Amino acid sequence: MAVTKIHPIKTTLKYALDYIMDESKTDEQILISAYGCGHETAYLEFQMTKERWNSSAKNLARHLIQSFDPDDDITPEVAHEIGIKFANKILKNHYEYVLTTHIDKGHIHNYILFNNVSFEDGKSYISNKKTYKQIRNISDELCREYGLHVIEEESKEKGKSYKEHMEKNKGTSWKAQLKYAIDSAIKKSKNWDSFLQIMQEMGYEIKEGKHVSFRAKDQQRFTRSKTIGDYYTEESIRERINNRNEFREKNTNSLHPVDRIIDMKNNEKVKNFKGYEFWAKQHNLKNISKTLTIMNQYGIKNIENLYCSIKEESKKISLKSQEIKTIESKINEISLQIKNIEIIEKYEELYSNYQTSQEKAQFYQAHSDGIILYESAVTSMEDNLKINKPMDISTLNNELDRLKNMKKIEVGKLKTQKNKVSELNLLKSNLETYMKSKKPIIENKKEH
């Protein structure tokens, strides 16, 4: 598993970079990587990016820490590999960063120090609860990919007794059942009234007042929804319904909306609530009909055709993703060229004066930042010219704009393709669940 933390750096950027690149902590600097900058000149290049975009951002950088559990069987090299994937997924190649893997505190941890200002568009990184949740999710996904433990979210419910905790694990707690019912109803509700109707169809008696309350069949007392967690107050439920409806409106790429059908044989709610069982049967009939209609519109005759279609359409996602990665690689390459040209133009006269100076040591001491940046940019440009033809900055900027527009178009196509594959997979799941529920039970009978 990995624990993640992030905090801003406002004044001590050079110190923070020196700390994370300390040789004693990073296996003699073997475990250091950088993106969009040189790790030795990162603090200067971060500032150059900020100046280039005339950014007024107060934060100079962000410090992201990813710590691994000592009990996880992981080497520093694998941790560093995870760190690179982690940084690239979070920052999406828009921010310069330096990544180091430390091995000095009994557990392995990655330090990612990235520019607060994007070198691609000059926008500042937004750090809030939503982006931190994305960081946690990406870290957890990578831990699963590499077979590491993942920290499960701790319960935020208030006042839960030990008895209720045990009952929840067994699926017998009234509050646990109510949470499940509310979550299910929200997914199917268009507004508050339809939510209450669905809850009634699932077998709940409802009492509205200052706080909405629910009572299941055979339950003696009503349960106020607010007592099962902040996520289940009336205000939160209304907000969740509205948010889901807004999400549906924004994601209407599918021309054939269909819901997932319910496994009648294995669903605990179907077994325990007659009202929910009745509703689920109607729900399944309506959605298996939609499923077959959509399959027909796609020209899919049977489940074997559906499997083939999913396979072919999934291949298109991989191809489109690779196209986007190629475009992103070109964008990063050109952005780096533009950055190097600007550095060379800014410090060319300074460097010329340094070369002709009679007191080079003193001159270097006074102007080391500019000299280091100039030499780093020249080296990078020379390496690039071995592969690509030289272009002026105006041509490079035009090419950069063209590639960004192309990426935007291709990302739109990728989203459409992913939606199509998601829909096909939903059709597959519905068809398999429905066929399983209708499969006759054949008993072996002895012949007399």
What does this structure look like?
This is Endonuclease. One of its GO terms (molecular function) is endonuclease activity. Keywords: Endonuclease, Hydrolase, Nuclease. It comes from Anaerosphaera multitolerans. Pfam families: Relaxase. With 448 residues, this protein is of the alpha+beta class. It folds into three domains: 144 residues, BirA Bifunctional Protein, domain 2, CATH 3.30.930.30; 89 residues, no CATH class; 133 residues. The protein has a five-stranded antiparallel β-sheet, with helices on both faces. A three-stranded antiparallel β-sheet has the order 6-7-8, covered by helices on one side. Strand 6 and strand 7 form a beta hairpin. The radius of gyration is 29 Å and the shape is elongated. It starts with a strand and ends in a 10-residue tail after the last helix. The C terminus is likely disordered.
Strand and helix layout:
Layout: E1 2-9, H1 13-20, E2 32-35, H2 42-52, E3 61-68, H3 76-91, E4 97-102, E5 109-115, H4 129-145, H5 162-170, H6 174-188, H7 192-201, E6 205-207, E7 213-215, E8 223-224, H8 234-250, H9 268-272, H10 274-297, H11 303-356, H12 360-385, H13 393-438
Antiparallel strand pairs: 1-3, 2-4, 3-5, 4-5, 6-7, 7-8
Helix pairs in contact: 3-4, 6-7, 10-13, 11-12, 11-13
Organism: Anaerosphaera multitolerans
Domain MobA/VirD2-like nuclease: 19-148
Keywords: Endonuclease, Hydrolase, Nuclease
